[in-house]
């Protein structure tokens, strides 16, 4: 039932988009579409097939060394070519990659004698430790993820998407997840501890002023030293690689 509703809504939206800009029916429906709740509802409805597709692929993942609950929500999943530096012949291997809230997981697709596919877990990286390089010299569809301090990384993996649009979508989502996981773990550590009970009203005012100054310094230090770790998204690197099974 949900699938039928989604298809119907999407079909109506597609027809509306194709109408001439000054079409009377389009002018009538446009205010409804501009309404935030209507737009949000449409986005939710159109997101249902993606959620179902992600859940289907996730159900095929086997052998992961941690539970699915520890991985977080699936943000993105697709088949990418991955370069393994441990191989003498530098040939990209096809891997099905899952971007979760907390991890980037690599798996290998295999099929049994009946042709049924499943994904065998190979490796994972914590998103809180990742950096992203958007441009790899020589191929517009390649990008890289790495750990360590940029621009010299201790661990680097080069990936290739099926198209430039797909690559840009991966880079965008990776950056969003990296920032979210970083701030969720870093901000609580930057907050000052609660002050002890104050003996008098004048002491309370002094402590409040000190706490405010401490909080400002914490935020300033966070802005100054931490945001650079999100990755050099617009830099161009040569085709060097890091390890993945």
Automatic annotation (TrEMBL):
Cellular component GO terms held in the UniProt record: cytoplasm; extrinsic component of membrane
SMART domains in the cross-refs: PH
Matching InterPro entries: Kalirin_TRIO_PH_1 (IPR047054), PH-like_dom_sf (IPR011993), PH_domain (IPR001849), RhoGEF_Guanine_NuclExch_SF (IPR051336), SOS1_NGEF_PH (IPR055251)
Region Disordered, residue ranges: 195-245
Stored PROSITE patterns: PH_DOMAIN (PS50003)
Biased composition (Acidic residues): 211-220
Molecular function GO labels: guanyl-nucleotide exchange factor activity
GO biological process, one term: axon guidance
This protein's UniProt keywords: Guanine-nucleotide releasing factor
Domain PH, residue spans: 73-179
Name used for this protein in its record: PH domain-containing protein
Species annotation: Homalodisca liturata
Biological classification of the source: Eukaryota, Metazoa, Ecdysozoa, Arthropoda, Hexapoda
